[in-house]
Amino acid sequence: MSSLARAISVWHIKIHPGCAPEVGTNELGLRVHKIIRRLRKACVIGESGKMASIREVFRALDSKSFGWIEASRVRELLDTHDKHRDNPLKGLPADAKDSLVRIAAERRGDGKITYSDFFQALMGAAPLKYVATSATQDQTTDMLQLVLITRHGARFPLKRFPHNTSWPEHPKFWKVYGGKLTPTGQQQLWQLGHEIQQRYGGNWDQDHPGFPQQCYVYSSNSDRTIGSAQALLNGMFPTLMHTFMVADQVRHPKEWETRANERSENEQDQHKMHQGVDINIATLEGMYQPILHGFKECPRYDQLKDQALKRCTWFDEQIETPEYQAVMEKLQRMTGFKKIEKGGAKSLSHFQSIAQQIGIERAHHMAPLLANSTGLVLDDQDEALVRQAADYTCRMRYQGNDLDEQRALSRFAAGLLPAEIVAGMEGRARGSSQRRLAIYSAHDNTIMALLAHFGFRDWPIPQFGGYVSFELHRRRSDGELIVRMMYNFAPEINPPATFNQYVMIPPDQEIVDWNSAPLGEMGWDVFKQRVMQDRKSFTSPEEWTHEGQLEGRAAALAEIEAKKQQLSEVEAELDRLLELQQQKDVLEAELEALSQAVAK
What we know:
Blueprint: H1 3-15, H2 25-42, H3 54-61, E1 68-70, H4 71-82, H5 94-106, E2 112-114, H6 115-123, E3 141-151, H7 171-177, H8 183-200, E4 215-219, H9 223-236, E5 241-247, H10 265-271, E6 276-282, H11 299-311, H12 314-318, H13 322-335, H14 344-349, H15 351-363, H16 380-399, H17 403-414, H18 417-430, E7 437-442, H19 444-453, E8 456-457, E9 467-475, E10 481-488, E11 502-503, E12 512-513, E13 522-523, H20 524-534, H21 541-547, H22 552-599
Parallel strand pairs: 3-7, 4-6, 4-7, 5-6, 8-12
Antiparallel strand pairs: 1-2, 3-9, 9-10, 10-11, 10-13
């Protein structure tokens, strides 16, 4: 029982001498709830003010974010609180209040009360690792862990189409803002987080001091995913602070069976002072890691993809149709996009860039889409053709032309993410890890590769904020562990708080069309079997790296292609430097002219 609870008991006995020495648990809980409610009111202006949690009360008291509050400040708060009408503490003697504050302050010995002290004083001496679990919506299971893989929010385009009048032409704009998350994208992920919390919030106690250490958040090394991770957390847990770490190493997935996050136990003890949820950023030494980017820097995957594209006949067939020839000519005039100016099948494969631009502009409510100086505008048929070609391009990367190509491509492209998901759940299932929430802030390609690897074909392309979720549950009736998997490609269409389409991973190496995917939940052992053994998922960074290498002539050809790409990037940089040199020459000439004019 907490110090405050004991004080309530003493006070209660004085008013009701005939009652038992201790107030019953339920009665005590009700009284503590009333006290906390009054404490919240004491922290805001006006009786109508509301605060969401104990954390919010603490943050209001610690307005300068020092991570602690003076014991005297809490004592003043109790007196302020005592003045409220119908106050459950009315009449509580001053020495009882002094005792509460003193015991809390003595935990550190310096008169400073941390959040952990504050929580303990109000709610009792619950172990920091304990987090209350409540039933999920069906009231038949307890959710042990939630894993989310999210696509980032809306971003700026990577660059401007030459004829587009909606975006600035200035090259510095694109150097600074190209591909970055926009405020609209932040709002999308905040809204997603808010609705995720509405759906799952009953399964964790975010007020508990131990809760931040039970969360794991990992982001790719990209502005748009880092910002999206923070916006998502703000929507889910508005009173929780965030801290940032760089994940310099790719851990063996097995490590997650015994640890909840990146910090060691000693670091976690230190971390309790400021109560932040870590956002772990993939190593800054390079852009890509096999956790979220198995499809990058993997020579074997690149080889398989190139072979699949060479065998593909779809683009050759479609470009011969009058519909695609007409829309190709129209888009050439509308955009001036160099990669489609020659027409032909290869140009058709670049419609994905145009589809991305349409999605970005629509997310920002820009009209007309692909605005241009010619006055041409899109219609439904145009967009349907663009989307069809763009979606085919996206799916080809991970599905190939047939089922065997899909199994090979998607296995490398999914990288280590399947093993990370399973290992994190394994630790929670065994009780060797306290992780309750894992969030991977990623990209559309991350999600598409994962879906293809899990045996789904022709899935909807993930839109901004789209996500895959995995829920680990324990059934109350028999204690069986089950997994529920869900893919919500467009949260703005399918509200996350109520969307309930759970799908099952097909058995063995079977691949099914997304619209025919079996619905329902999977037993934990079945889920592990289908992800790791049936799909032959990679189990370690070393395995992915080793199998992803090429040998002999294939390796030499891959190196040639890599060198060509590097040469292209260097040439582009030289062009940029030439432009800067020309600007320098102009400025020097103008400066010389001005200097001569002043001298005269």
